[in-house]
Every structure is written in structure tokens, then in C-alpha cells.
Amino acid sequence: MVKRKQKSSEGHYQIIIMPTQKRVLDLDEKEGMEIEGVGVAHDKENGMNGKGLGGGGGKRVRGGGRKSYQDDDYDDGDEYQQGEEGDEQRRLMPQASPPNRKRSKARGGDSSSSHPEAASDSSSSHVVNSPLRDRHLNPKGTPAEAGIIHEVYVENFMCHRKLSVKLCRNVNFIHGQNGSGKSAILAAIQVCLGAGARRTHRARNLRDLVRKEAGADCPGARLRVTLLNGGADGYMPDLYGEYITVERLISLRPGGFNGYKLLDSNMKERSRSKKDLDAMLDQLNIQVENPVAVLDQEEAKKFLTGKEEDKYAFFVKATELERLDRAYASVQDNILEQQALQERAREGVGGAIENTKRLKMEWEQFRELDKLEMEAQELRAMYGWSCHREFMEQLDEEMKAQKYSKALEKRRVELATAEQSLDVTDDQEIELKKEMESLTEEASDAAESKTRLENEVRDASIPVKSKERERSLLARELAQEKKKRDSAVRRLEQARRQILESQGNVAEEERARTRKIAQTEADLARAKEQVEPLREEVAIHLRKYQEIEPALAQTKETLDGTMKQLVAVQQKLTAMQQESGEGRAALAVFGSKCKALYEAVQRATKANKFQGPVAGPVGMYVKVVRGKEKYAKIAELAIGSGALDRFIVTCHEDFQLLNKLRREIGCGPRDCPLYRIHPKSTKQRYDIPAPPPGVETVTSVLNVENAMAFNMLVDLAKIDTSALADSKEISEEALLSRENGRSFIKGGRIGKVYFLPKGDHWEAKGGNVMMVSNDRGMKQTVGVDRSAAIESAKHELKALQQELVRNQEEQKGVNDASYQHKKAWNDAKANYSKVSSRIKNMEEILGKLRDEAETSEEAPTIDTTEYENDIQEAETAVQDLKKKEAAVVQEIESLQPGLNELRKQLEEVDTRNSRILEDMEIVEAKLEDIVNHQTQRMEMVEKIRAKVQQLDDAVTKQEDNVAEIKGRVSEALAGARKMQFDYNRDIRMFELKKKNGGELPHGEELELEPSENDLEEIDIVDPGNDSKFYKTKLQNKLRKIEQEKQRRNMSESDPVVARDKYFRARKDLDSKMEQIHAIERNTKALTKDLKERRARWRDFRRHIAELTNLGFDEMLNKKGSAGEVEFDHEAGRLNLIVQKSNTDAHSQTKDVKALSGGERSFATLSLLLAIGESLETPFRVMDEFDVFLDPVARKIAMENLVRVAKEMDHRQFIFITPQDVSNLQTDQKLRIFKMKPPVRNDSVGGAQQQTLNFES
Known about the structure:
This is RecF/RecN/SMC N-terminal domain-containing protein. It comes from Cyclostephanos tholiformis. This protein is an alpha/beta fold and 1256 residues long.
């Protein structure tokens, strides 16, 4: 810690606390430096330093034994580097300075610093009352606790026989005449704390320092320096305590001990190691080699008289700049060595690279072989799967070839039928005969009815046939009359043509009228010919329309009846389904969320989200066996709550998915709970033994359709152990047994017995019967097993639906026919009306034409009246015949319905008679078979029985074949799964090794042998070809592998050895390359760091020079003088400029030799105090600092020394002077020791010190 005085704006001086040189040389937080011959940057990322790279380090640089301390403001602690056995002292360098170091206030107020780092970075700013002060040895403001001298004891040393000096903690003055032994105390401190004899400037070796007057028997000298060892900075306080004593023995006897001892507070020896002494001095920051910390007479006398170079050397040594400069030079030498090492390493790594490439090529060849091995392993697995598939195909063929089994069943049915036919008794024969008699009587009755009806039909047909003959006669007469009419018409037309021809030029009007009359009569005749057919057509269509009306009504009635039956059957089916619990609508009875969860499960199942089967709710599969409905409620009571609304899965993944679906639809904790069942329990029900005779259990009352639901109820609800009974008495009579005063339940597995009417139950425990009443009401949510009735109703519903379709088609056909007949009738009526209207119009026109002809002036020459009368008579005859024919047709139609009815009855009787005859033939055949073919049936039975036996043997043989093939299938499946497991394991190992450089990752373990679960989890693979194909490919692949091995002619036959060789070579190469890269990184880091340190060192040197200059000038100002310290850092020179009077510029001198002795001494003292402010040693010693001072200057110097020393109460000052110090006042911080004058005598050796006592 250094202090810098700076003048404030008010004219007062401020003391600015600044880091000392050991704090200026901070490092970057990520790099560190060791001041040793190997000095390299610390690389945290690689965990390496330059020492591990080879390359010899030079000797370690030693300084003056200073110590750096660890601060809370630093991120990284100081690093210590242990030296070799012969080194005297360990050194350290601090780590990076902390950023944003705090500033505090000086005693005189705020301050500013001229330090070059203060303006650039807050991490190097200089602060007043910095917190670093409290982190240094013996912080200011508190009495010194560690490192200061408590007592000095000498024995047979220099002029002292025995001397003990107990020093004050702050300021100590030792004065006395020359020769009184003052400087011997300083020499004892130096020698005892590690300095050599030459450093004392009193002798060349330590033996010369032993007191000569002790005589030849003197064993040697003993020196002891006791130091305070308290506070946080004490050296191993647990071992040494509050005081630590360094004892130095200088033996004059051969073989005597010459060395150091470290003693604890109880003066018990703890160590004799020079290393421990160096560590203690380093810990306490004691620097006896530093001339500013310990200034003896010789150093003080020659300081000002030396050359400028000597002064500069004194300055850099005192401030430790010289030690740091030597350390940097050593680091630069090490950098050069590391660069040379790097070049040599790069030259020597070429062979390792080539060897690594060669070994890598060999190992990659083995990896290529590994790929071929993987392909061969895959072919093995596929060969196994193809064998399994072929065995499965054989098994499928055997299982499909059910001809023996089906034929056996058919033959057994035939055998049963044949055997039953043998059991026909006489009663059956009598019954058949009675049936034959009955059929005979019925056939006789039917024959009589047929004869009677045939006579009736014949009788009823006589008038119809008579009318038919009459109609035929009328039709012939009508045809003859039409011919007559046509002939009359032709004669009339001929006559009229003759009239027209004979008249010639008769008026055109008459001719036109005649032609028109003729045309009208012709049209009228044709129209009248159309009237009758149209009338008949109208009558026919009307009859057809009237005939189809009853059929239309009948089809509508039939359709309505079919619809009513269909609705009734649908209602009946719905009721039975609801009663039996079928349909999703019935799921709500098991729980409010069952339906929603069921639908969600169905959607997930369609999306193939489940890995295994899922069932639920359980109650959906539970039905009451028909006829046992009365036990339904207590059976459900025995099952218990929370079972019928469960859903069942087989694996953890499905369980998680179903839980997710439950959450999505908002299921509570008790809604639709889940149950996980073993996958083997999904297809086959548990083999539950039947209950005892006369005893009903839940399993016998309820029919559970789903195997998973059944097995779950057995596991969870114990339905196979719950018996059901009509009453307590009946249950006890059937199941309760008592022996030797103990009660137990018969039936083996029965554990609880439930009985009606309330659902109470009892059980036997510990030989006693325990009755449990049911306080809850019983309910029934499971449906009755009406599967047979429901199936029958479904068939009936289907038949009715088909019949409904037929009825609808039939009604549509009848409707279409009725519509067509009605439309034809209407069309015929319209045509008839149209023709009738035309006839009426033509008759009116013809009448008018005839009237005009009669009233005309000229009458025709030929009379056509006769012809016209003939036509009129013929037309009249035709109309009369048509009326008669119509009357006959009407009579025939009136007789036809009765005749048709008789014919229908005759047809029915004939059909019934045919059926009776067929039944009689069947019965007769049965009787004939019973009577005449019993022996043949016996032979047939034997033949069928032999055939059954033959088929039974064939079935047994087939079952043996199936069992054998199943065994082969199982073996093939196990083998295929084992080969698939090996392939999966090897491919997994291959991939892991490929990603991890040929080795399995750390912590990765692969099972070499599969467990049963591992094999079961392997899915069956469907190969693309048969086993022969894969076998051929596998053999070819193996031959190729052998050929590749022979072709490659590799030096190693073992891939593991090749891989290990390659990885060892690569690891060695990587290690060498890493060393080369580490050397390169560290060299770059060292170069950069050294450059930064050099810059900091120069800044620090300038800063120390400025502080020294300010302190020097300030100290001279106390005497009324002024001064300046000139530094030439490049030339290594230091010169003092002293101005005797600070008001007289002419009194300035640059040659200190021109000053008087007192002035030189005061200037020397001023410079030493200025430099000394940069030190943090716990104590400072100055010997004969005031030589040549005049009284005034000496007084000023003494006052300044005491003032400065008391201000630094955390340091110890020892001033040795031959001058009088009586003007100083002693107190707790200041103590004066006066040495007694030496005894003067004339004996050889001169003056000697004879006493140990001091004058106060």
C-alpha cells in the first residue's frame, strides 16, 4: 500500500491510499503468471501450464521476500509456486485485479489521482481509505498484530554476551555511544531472519560474528527474534500461537548445529526447515534484504555519495522493480524456449501422422467387414423369420384343412341320426299307422268334395255354355247383316254415280250436294262401325278397372298390416335390448361418463392409437342368464361398486392414453376407473371350476361375453367365490357345514354367500359364521340375457322388412295397373263420346242435305230411295243384333262369378288332396322303412360307425401333426426372435461405436443375452422371400466375408487389436498435437500478458517515481528547503536536485556532494522516507540515519520521523542513532532504549559492552 499526498483546492494536503507495486501488476482474470524460470500463462480451459510441455525452466527469480495478500475484491486467489529444495524463499504473483474497485474518501475530503491508470479504468483507480487497506497485513487504524518484532535476544554475538530487547509495537529509538552495540541488534535481526553475514557489512561469514571474548570454550552464538503472530494474517496460529520465535544457532564446534529453529509461544520447537522460515517471512511480508526496510550504516553512508546509476539501482531494488524486471526477462527467455520446442515438436510429429493414417485405414477395413457382418446378421434374422413364416403356413394349411374334423362332425351327426332311427318302437309304428288312417280319411273326404264340386261346376257351366252358343249365333247373324248393309251401300253409291254420269251438265250445285251426301253417308257408316267397338272397349276397361279395385284395397290393407307388424317387432326388439343392456344408450346406467368415454375409445381405436385391446365399460358385456333373472340384483351386489364402469387395458402406454381421454371428457377420480390386465388374459377366460350342484354363483348367474371383462371380475370382484341363494335357510342348508363346533363353507372356493330378499350375506371366518346385513338398496343395471330372443326378433324384423319391400312393390304394381286401366277407360270414354258426337253431327248434316235435295228444282232421274231403305233396314238389323249380343254377354258375365267361385273351391280341394297324398306317401315310406329296412339301417349304422372311427383316427393324427408343427413354429419363433435380438443388439452397438469413435459410450450397457420379456416384445417380421432365398444369400455373404478377409491381407486378424492400435496412435498423436497447440496458445498468451505487464510495470515505475518525488519535496519543505528527484529510466539514472531555500531559486544545486554533511543526511532521510511509503513491511529499521545533521535539521527530522511513524501505528519503526534523543517524549507508542557506554580499557580488543541493563 502506498500513500500519495495531493494538494486540495483549499490548500490542504490529502493522503491518498494507493495500491503498491504488487497490486499494480495484476493479471487478466482468465490468465495467471508464475514468476519462475518456466513462467507460463495459466490456461483454465486446458487445465495445463507451460511446465507440462517439456522445456527446461530457468532458475526461479527471488526478490526481497515480499508477500502479496488475497483480497475479497479479487475473483481469483493468489497462486503460490513451490521452489526447489535449495531455494530460500517462495514467491507469488497476484491474480487479476477486480473490476470496478470501490473508491472511498481521504481524511481531507474527495481527491483526484494523477496515476496513469486512474483515468483509464476503474479497476486500477486509486482510492482514499480503500477497502484494500483492511485486507493488508496489520491494517491501518489498529495496532499491529502480526510480523512486528516483540523481542530480540542475543547471546555471544558480536560485542554482547547476553542481550534482550523488548520493543514497542510502534516507534522505537535505540541510541548510545559508538561501540555500545546498537548496530549489533540490527545485525542480529538480519541474521536471525535469513540474511547472510555479508548483508550486515560486519563480517564475511557468520563465525566472525561470534563474540571473541567468549573464549575457546564458547560453543557459538545464539540469536532469537520473537515476532507477533496474531490476527487473521498470522502464520499457522493454531500451531505456533500468538508468538513465533526464530532462533539462529551459529556453532563454532565441528558437527554442531548451524541453522534455524521455529519455536511456538511456549518456546517449543516446531520446525528446523529453511522452507518453513521462508514461508513464514513470506506470509508476514518481512523483507530484511530490502535496503529501505532495513537500512544499515553502510547503505546510509554510501547512498548519496554513489553514482547516479547506483542511486537508481538502489531505487529499483528498494521498490522491487528490479525483481519484477528480472522476472519478465526470465519469462521472455521461456517464451523463446517454448517457441523452439514447438518447432521441434512439429517436425517430429510427421511420422506419428503417417502411422495413424495407416492404422486408421486398417481399422476402417475392419469396419467395412463389420458392415458385411451386420448384413449377414440381418440375413440370419430374415432366414429365421422366413422359416417361422413357412412353419406358420404349414400350420395354417393344417388348421384350414378341417375336412377331417368337419367330416367327423358330419358323420357323428349321421351316426346319431342312424342310431336314433334304430330306436323306433312299436308305438311309433302305431302312431304312423294312425297318422296314415287319418290321412286316408282326409283324402276320402277331399275326393268326395272334389267330385261334388266338379258336378257343381259342370251344372253351373251349362247355362254359360248355352249363352256362349247363342252369342256365337248372334255373332254370325251380325256378320251377315253387316255384309248386307255393305252391299246396300255399294249399290247406292253405284246408283248415284250413274245419276251423276247420266246428268252430265247438271248444275254443279246438285253434283256437289250429291257428292257431299254420299261422302257424309260413307263417313257416317264408318263412324257407326266404330261405335260398337268403342262401346265394348269402354265396357272392357271399366270392367278391368272395377276388377282391380278389390286388389288395390287388398294390397293397401296388406301393406298396412305389414307396417304394423314391423313397428311392433321393432318395439319388441328395442325393449329386449334395453332390458338386456345392449346399445350405447344403455351405457349411462353404469356411469354418467361411460358413454362419452366409450365413444372416445372407439374413435381412438379407429385411429390405431391403442397398442393393445381395450374393453369397457365392463357392465356392457355382462348379461343375466335367461331363467335366472331373480338373482340379478344380488349378483350385482356381490360384484360391488366401481367394477361395472371400469375400462380395461393391457399395457402402460394404453393406460396413460386412456387416462388422457378420461381427463379430456372431464372424468372425476371415481368416474370410469381403469384396470390394467396381463396381456395373456385378453383372449382366453380363466378356467373357473363349476359351482357345487344346486348352488348358484355370480359366474353361473351372469354371462360375461368379453374374456378381459370376465378375468377382471374374477381378479377384482372375486365373482367365482360369491354364491347366491333364495334365502338364508336354503343357503345354509346347501353350503354351511359344522364339524367339531366349527363352521365352514362347503364347495371349496366359496367365500361369501349372498341371499334374497335384501342382499344380506354370511361368511365363515375362524370357524364362526359372520352375518352381514345389507343396508343399501339393491339395483339392477346389467341386462337379462335375451340374446336368443333378440336374435330371433332380428331375423323376424329382417323378414318383415323384406316382406314390406315386396308389399310396397306389389302395391306399386297394383296402383300402376289401376291407373293404367282407369286412364284407358277414360280414354275409351273420350273416344266414344267423340265418335258419338261426330255421328250426331253427320246425321244432322245429312238430313239438311237431303232436305235441300228434295226442295231443289231438278229431281234426279234415278230413284235411290230403295237403296237407301235397304241400307236403313240393314243398319237396323245390325243394331238389333248388337243389342241382343250385348244382352247375352251381360247374362254370361252375371253367371261367371258363381262359376269362378266354384272353380276356385275345386282348385283348393285339388291342392289339399295332392298334399294329403304326398303326406301319405311320406308316412307310407316311413312305415315301409320301419317294417322292411331295419336290417339295412343296422348295416348303415355299422358302416357309419366305422367311418367315424376312421375319421377319428385321422383327426387324432392331424392334431398330432398340428402339435408338432406348433412346436416347430414355437422353436422357429424363438430362434427368429433370438436372431432378431442379436441383430438389433449388434446394429445398436455398431451405431453407438460409430458415433463414439469405435467404442461404446461411457455408461452405455447392452444386454448380450435376451430375457424372456425382451424376446416377447420383439414384433414378428414378415420376410419378403422364402427361407431358401435367404439361406442362399447368407451363404454367399459369408463366402464374400471370407474372401474380403483374404483379399485385404490385413496385418491384424483381430478387429479389436486393430482398433486399439489405431486409437492408441490417434491418442498419442492428439496428445502431441494438443501439446503443440497448448505451447502455441500459452506462448501467445504469455507474449500478450508480458506485453501488458511491461506496460503496467512502466506505469507503476512512473507512479512510484512521482510519489517519491512528491514525498521528497514535502519532507524538504519541513526544513524550508525544496527538492526534486530526477529519473532517467532509459539510462537507469537517478539524480537529486536540492534547493536549500524554497524561496531562493539560486540556492538550487544538482550535485549533492556540494551540500554540507547535514544537508546530505537530511536529503538522504527525506528520500528514504519518500521511498519507504511504498512499502508494506511490518517493520522498518534505520541505522545512523541522522549523521552529519545539525541540531536544527536533526530536530526537524526527528519530529517528522516520529509524526509519520505514529500516524502509521500499524507499522513498527526501529531507529538506531548515536545522537541524543532526550527531546523526545515517550508514551505508549514511543519507546527509547539507551545503550550504556562501552567500558574503555587498554586490553587488546578495545571497548567492550559489559552490561545488559538500559538507562531509562
